[in-house]
Amino acid sequence: MIPLTHKIASALVGFLICAFQPVFADCFDIHGRNFGVAPDLLRAIAITESSGNPSALAGPKCSQDIGLMQINSQWLSKWNLSKSELLSNACLNIEVGARILKDNLMRFENPWEAVGAYNAGCSRLKGQDCTDARQKYAWRVFKNLQSLDDKTREKLKAIAS
């Protein structure tokens, strides 16, 4: 569960970034550092998941992916979040994505398997099908990471500020 204080802190961080943009980094930088995850890796996941769209929704209502980092609705009750919070607060969406990725990095020895597990939790896929899905997703993230440029960073900074 993400405490209310964290939700307020994410909103405050977003406000402060807007107010003091030249002084502060964007939410990818802040939450990347907070969770020990490379900020550009978070940016690449956001591009892979939603093409950088903070309003993106995918999947059926029973298992919907929400916002910039496409947070699956299964996480809502675990962290006491709402769909509207994740859609209206890109900084909170990035924080949750960074938290999920950090948890995966703690669970898997191979960091790229952890990246693959961000998208393919493998509750339905098993064995080689799971491995293949994770590798395919990790490869897409890797390609987006390699092609990340200043223009894309600026676009994401505008969204995550």
UniProtKB/TrEMBL annotation:
Organism expressing this protein natively: Turicimonas muris
InterPro entries reported in the protein's UniProt record: Lysozyme-like_dom_sf, Transglycosylase_SLT_dom_1
Protein name listed in UniProt: Transglycosylase SLT domain-containing protein
Keywords: Signal
Superkingdom of this protein's organism: Bacteria
Residues spanning the signal sequence: 1-25
Domain Transglycosylase SLT: from-to ranges: 27-128
